[in-house]
Amino acid sequence: MKEKNVQHEAEVLHQKKLALENIKAQEEERKRMAVMIHDDIGNRLNILSLWLNNLDTKGDELIKKNIHSQMSSLIDAARSISHSLYPVNLESVGLVLYAEELIANLSHKINISLQVMPGYEKKDLFVEVQLYRIIQEFTTNVIKHSNATDLWIYIKDYPQNMAVIISDNGQGFEYEEVKKGMGIKNIESRIKSMNAVHKWKKSFLNKGSRLIIKIPKHYEFPNQNSID
């Protein structure tokens, strides 16, 4: 029995390491593409926009206005694609401010409350990127599928770990029926890559959903495999 337990623990750790390596490889490629779009294409579009503003169209103001409108749309699209690939500015502004920007951008679709308890310390960039992605994925799923009007995000640091709770007041879901969906898979893969543990609070229809995540301070070295 002991030997089986050791083998099981080794297999779990191996799977977590694979998830970590896979997510890191994906994020590196996403980051490369996002930076290219943000810094190269985005800057070129901005230069073109400035050039267009100084262009003498000899009275063709309607043409100038239409081109300028299209250019602005392209700049917004480039920025949106860049952010969807990788949160380019997260490293400089941090998870909390970046999440607040996401909330502001979604305020016309759903009410989101972010509560970060006093004492929160900035985390490793990899962890903050994964948490941002999880919040983004959870929020997207809620907006698309749950008919929720409110969503709550709670973050608190403890001496040995960090707790993140995300919940909503939507119609809820049956985990066994949706666990194979890409949204749930993406969230759980990112949780595994941080060597974190999680629990989907038992959901009843029309009672919303809740995800509880506990991330060890040193995410490379997990010391447990479940939440009590």
UniProtKB/TrEMBL annotation:
<keyword id="KW-0418">Kinase</keyword>
<dbReference type="GO" id="GO:0000160">
    <property type="term" value="P:phosphorelay signal transduction system"/>
</dbReference>
<dbReference type="GO" id="GO:0004673">
    <property type="term" value="F:protein histidine kinase activity"/>
</dbReference>
<keyword id="KW-0808">Transferase</keyword>
<dbReference type="Pfam" id="PF02518">
    <property type="entry name" value="HATPase_c"/>
</dbReference>
<dbReference type="InterPro" id="IPR036890">
    <property type="entry name" value="HATPase_C_sf"/>
</dbReference>
<feature type="domain" description="Histidine kinase/HSP90-like ATPase">
    <location>
        <begin position="128"/>
        <end position="217"/>
    </location>
</feature>
<protein>
    <recommendedName>
        <fullName>histidine kinase</fullName>
        <ecNumber>2.7.13.3</ecNumber>
    </recommendedName>
</protein>
<dbReference type="InterPro" id="IPR050482">
    <property type="entry name" value="Sensor_HK_TwoCompSys"/>
</dbReference>
<dbReference type="InterPro" id="IPR003594">
    <property type="entry name" value="HATPase_dom"/>
</dbReference>
<keyword id="KW-0902">Two-component regulatory system</keyword>
